Amino acid sequence: MSAEKAPQLLALDWGTTSLRAFLVTADGTAVERLSAPRGILQLKDGDFAADYEEIAGDWLARYPQLPAIACGMIGSRQGWREAPYAEAPAGLAELAKGLVSVAGRNGHRLAIVPGVVYRAAAAPPDVMRGEETQMLGALADADPAGPTVFVLPGTHSKWAIAEAGRIVWFATFMTGELYAVLKAESILGRLMTGEGEDTRSFRLGLARAADASPAAGALLHKLFSARSLALFDELPATGIASYLSGLLIGSEIDEALAAVSARLGLRPLCVTLIGEAALSRLYREALGARGIEGRLAEPDATARGLLAIAQAAGLLGW
């Protein structure tokens, strides 16, 4: 391997259900990577040191002096060691300052990135772990002149605003979790058949979510239409899941855009999407239906974010 492509950092995204690891070069390129269903909830006895050595042992043997850093739920109260939340506004300096360190069985140290907490007057706190690293990694790919609006779709979708390299506001929406619960455990799922996507039904759900007329009601009323439309054959059984997805994603986007617009004083024309490809595609379509461009972040934003935090903390020695 050439000197310019030699790894400078072992970077881990260690979440609740899965783990992704990267060997990262000085320019943020992931030259090697691995992933496994080895999230913090998968550890039977909570022996994080043993799991760390098993996962990264080959890399640690080849590059024993390589600094290592991790983000995500590994730094939660249920993880290896809690890394207390950094207060928003937070950027590279605040995250670097909040790093905590643990040691593996063979003495290999691992720095753990804190999450971020946002507090607004007269409102409960909102928190994230892992998403802050992805956003800062995406910011490293650009030099925005003004605020950047992010959306990170998932079980708990995050909307955020970054200014001057710092996360200044964010909000969490339990869209993915609500979809999963309604599909599996509620009466709405009883008539659903098939697993395929139905574009027409998804768009119908998006339109239903956007209907702000008094007769349409709010989300709690609209949700029941996933059943009533199917009962009267106005929605195919194979399209109910897509309709529900469109209804929930559309409702999230409308609520989030209202909050973002109030914060910025104007409606954003573009948001940056960071997430799994299939889900990001649905969000791009939903955003497009609202006249908003959904711009995909460059791949491996997490690896670049971890590299930037490690640099800010002086872990790399250059």
Q: How many H/I helices? A: 10
Please tell me the overall pLDDT: 94
Lateral arrangement of strands in the main beta sheet: 3-2-1-4-7-6
Distance between the termini: 20 Å
Which radius of gyration do the C-alpha atoms yield? 21 Å
For this structure, the CATH topology of the largest domain is: Nucleotidyltransferase, domain 5
Number of strands: 14
**Share of helix, binned:** 25-40%
CATH class of the largest domain: Alpha Beta
| Topology as a string of helices (H) and strands (E) | EEEHEEHEEEEHEEEHHHHHEHEH
| Count of the separate structural domains | 2
| Uncertain stretches of 5 or more adjacent residues | none
Architecture of the largest domain in CATH?
2-Layer Sandwich
Biggest sheet details: 6 strands, mixed
Strand content: 15-25%
CATH H level of the largest domain: which superfamily? 2-keto-3-deoxy-galactonokinase, substrate binding domain
